[in-house]
Amino acid sequence: MAIVIQALHELLSLHHFLYLMGGILVGMIVGVLPGMGGTAGMALLLPFVYGMEKESALALMIGMLATTATGDTFPSILMGIPGGSSSATVLDGFQLARKGHAARALSAAFSASMLGGLFGSVVLVGCVFIARPLILAIGMGEQLLLLVLALTMVGCLTGASPIKGLASCGLGLLIGTVGSAPATGELRFAFDTVYLSDGIPLIVLALGIFAMPEIVDLMRQRSTIADTPTLGSGWREGVEDTFRNWWLVLRVSVIGAIVGVLPGVGASTADWLAYGHVVQSSRQRDQFGKGDIRGVIAPEAANHAVRGGDLVPTLFFGIPGSGSMALLLGGFILIGIEPGARMVTQNLDLTFLIIWSLAIASIIGALLCIILAGPIAKLTLVKYSYLAPFITVLMFFTAYQATRDWGDVVALFALTIVGLLLKRFGWSRPALIVGFVLSSGLEASIYQTVQVYGFTFLARPQSIIILILVIASLVLALRAMRSRASADGTAREFTASRLPQILFSTVMAIAVACAIVSVSQDSYLTLVFPLGVGGLTLILLLIVIAQQSFGSAAHPALADENAYGPDEEKPIASQLLYMSWFFGFICLMWLVGFSIASAIFVGAFITAECRGPIWRNAGFGAATTGVLSILAFFLYLQYPAGVLEQYVSLPWWLR
Predict the structure, then answer these.
(1) How far apart are CA 160 and CA 184, in angstroms?
(2) Strand 179-180 with 187-188, pairing
(3) Which are the contacts of 636, defined by CB distance < 8 A and separation ≥ 6?
(4) CB 208, CB 412: distance < 8 Å
(5) Chain-centre distance of CA 334, in angstroms?
(6) Of 561, 548, 549, 645, which is closest to residue 595 (Cα–Cα)?
(7) Under 8 Å CB-to-CB from 45, ≥6 apart: which residues?
(8) What would the DSSP string read from start to end of 337-351?
């Protein structure tokens, strides 16, 4: 009990509490921006936590993760745009807003999210006491199989096609082998560059695969976020609705916590499971989808309870169950925390600090959202085109802080192209990120386990149970895919829309084949892991190509145009247009440096996309440079230097 109170006292000290508030505010901002989500928010925070004391870094990161889903509620209810974890909320929340009951829907959502977050914290407390005997019972071999289970569950449960999900995991594992081999130190896939000798930074990969594609889609929408900022009345009524349905909140919170513990399922799944549960368990179902307040309460409580469940495998087993948890695991490594048995023995104080951070952030986040709902609603009248250039500058700035090498900028641009294609053709980006994060640990675990035990660990009861779970997850996922495909139709015609995705899958298969050939001449301990992963991934990719070529028109492997609305015109052409903006920004950086290039990019983009007076748009650009200069001064940050600095002595605030 003493350690619990000590952790609370530590968190409530002014220094650490300010970091918690900073994380809460970042989480709300990231959540309000459509499509961003916790993965992008965590990628933005990671450069700042390096070198920070553990307690402050944990408060910052957990504060952000706890409130991202709370901020998601604004675009879901006010704009009808599904947030990262509030997609089911749109069905009834947006209908309530259209009827003039936005305030009631928002207050019900925020109060339900607060209760769900508190329930997740309670679940995490209970798991602290359960985890110790479980961790002690799991040896090196079982840890290896748990990693395999996590990969299969993430691959099978994210996305419409389990085969594509598993292939995405394989691609992530393969990308994770870039750099020096852990057993021998030999370089793999470095292409004679210094930058790739240490592998691709996690921050750059996450921004390129997740965040930047969302920014491109943000740019493509030139309208305002919402038509009107009117919230109406009903704040008190929404809170009363939540507490009147307390039994529903408890049930869906249990669903959310269980979903969180399962790797790869994620908050979006909990969202829909909770919504499905409330519809099926209700006697009066006619109003669902038309503005039933229970359709708001259920998904919001569930997707906040997920956070507590998500932290269980991440904290106690070092297994991230989602993209944001994978980045949180990277944050743990940056501040010197090793997940596992130490979290319930030597670092128990840090574990309870995380729990308190989650609980307090859930309460403060909900209250702040209620207080700031009016101003945030007015912000929805801002055009996307005004927000996009500022966010782009922030993304490039964040990426460069990974290694402070120009390779970060180039890698971000290249990975953005890959991320756009993955999103367009329905490939699981969370599965790729989780595979990347687990790659080095899985490779080292395989070598250590085989050297110590051989293959005798497979005969242990714990190992057999985990193997059964691995097989069960694969069988259930494949059966679900087969039943869905048969229900969708049996048409076998080849259509022109298949060609782009077949070409993309083929290019990935060729890249994997080239990687296999590239390592085939290396020493045994250097090649065995990428060779095995590459071989399995290549087989999965060939299966996907066969499904895309000969499968039914509605087969899950044929998800491409569904990533965009049917009324979208020439999405590839518009994506190329905005990628050319990024390319121009990089060229400007190379010529005049990051600060000056940012001012020119922001001013030029707003002028081209939003029109308006030149002097005002130039002011936006100058303000961007001013903010960058302040950050550089107080946080000792560095920005990409341009050719101009070699010939002209610039003032410190432009260097």
Answers:
(1) 39
(2) antiparallel
(3) none
(4) yes
(5) 18
(6) 645
(7) 23, 26, 60, 61, 64, 331
(8) ---SGGGGTTTHHHH
Q: How far apart are the first and last CA of the chain?
A: 52
Q: Which residue has the tokens 């085969």?
A: 163
Q: What is the pTM of this model?
A: 0.73
- The whole-angstrom distance between residue 509's C-alpha and the CA centroid of its chain comes to 25
Residue 399: C-alpha distances to residues 42, 174, 392 (Å)? 12, 21, 11
Question: Cα–Cα distance between 203 and 399 in angstroms, integer?
Answer: 6
Digit-coded pLDDT (tens) for 256-286: 887 777 665 555 567 766 777 787 677 776 6
CB-neighbour burial class of residue 450 (10 A; exposed 0-12, middle 13-18, buried 19+): middle
Beta bridge partners of 179: 188
Class of residue 419 by CB neighbours under 10 A (exposed 0-12, middle 13-18, buried 19+): buried
Which residue in 237, 379, 358 sits closest to 296, CA to CA? 237
For 91-137, write each residue's pLDDT tens digit.
778 778 767 777 888 888 888 888 888 888 888 887 777 766 666 66
Give the position of tokens 């594992």: 173
Residue 357 burial class via C-beta count within 10 angstroms: exposed 0-12, middle 13-18, buried 19 and up: buried
